[in-house]
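Troubleshooting log. The previous run stalled partway through. Resubmitting the same two chains, unchanged.
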Amino acid sequence: MNVQIHSLTGPNCITLEDGQIVYETILPELKAGNRVELDFKGVKLFASPFFNAAIGQLYRDFSSDELNRLLDMRGLTANGEIVLRKVGENAKVYYSSAKAKSVIESVVDSQESEDSR
Amino acid sequence: MGGLAKVLEADDRPPVFQWHTMRSEVAASLANNGFLRFFGQPGKRSKGTAAEFRQDTLLEKEPLVAYLVQDWIGMGRIKLSAALKEAIVSTAWEIYANAFEHSQSGVGVFSCGQHYPRKHLLELTVVDFGCGIPDKVRTFLKRPAMSGAEALQWAFRRGTTTSQIGIARGMGLDLLREFVRVNRGQVSIFSHDAYAIIDSRLPQRKNREVIYGKSDVSFSGTIANIVFRCTPHYYSFASEVSSRPLF
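Second attempt completed without errors. Output:
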């Protein structure tokens, strides 16, 4: 799948709302194991709210290895790449701690229901 | 001042400006940045070194980006590389995004800017009259006794956010700090009784740190003032691009 980002967002990839549109466009493809190419040709401006929604959320369901294998980013500016890397580092920590929290909570819940029997 | 006037207006207590008492140089300056016109006064706006005083009640990307690119950076025919221009506008956008996300300000966000051609500096001030960063952090962390400076320190940490929408956030202030470092600029944030200042002109070791403190004067919203150097020499983000895998 090839996605021309400019046609979805215009020249500025800076808002959470635009990021969410991109996320919802590519998620089903990635979940099906298909490669996705995001082409940023014509995009001039990038900011973290966009990447938080478009890419950061993917760490909820995919590992770094999976994303490196399935996602191809084309035409990012140098600044865009720097913002994306920082968002990615933050998202890895955020979603891994969210997963750990969820595992701990389910263990505690099951322990409590065991105890109450 | 313009923002305060709008807050009073919204509260049905419109202030009265004694315009005739202004010194001529003050009036000229307020005409240049459109402040007089904003309040319905005569005064021709000049496309000199001042970016227009404006009020934004919504975070709308196209008009705000146009303002930053054409009016703020565009003034004075500043010569910037495309990469530096993008980094400056992108970082300024992060400030607006933060102001709109956190302030819950009924009157919106006010901003104005200035170019100092001889010093090669570009300044932008963004003010909101919302609940302020310390209050938002204290409520989120359920720590009412937390000092304003501690709350700002928490907000500046990478990845911290008061947003509860389930998406990793909290990169805006971190990106701002990082860009100010490579650009050797300055950022000052005042909110409630606290401030956070990054000044890259300080001696080595100090210049990478954020200085937090308690202000003598308390302001219920948030004031963000940024100063960027607009010479390519002070920009090295591109050299920091890594060859490591992206994700």
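Takeaways: Chain A has five helices and five strands. The first helix of chain A runs from residue 5 to 9.
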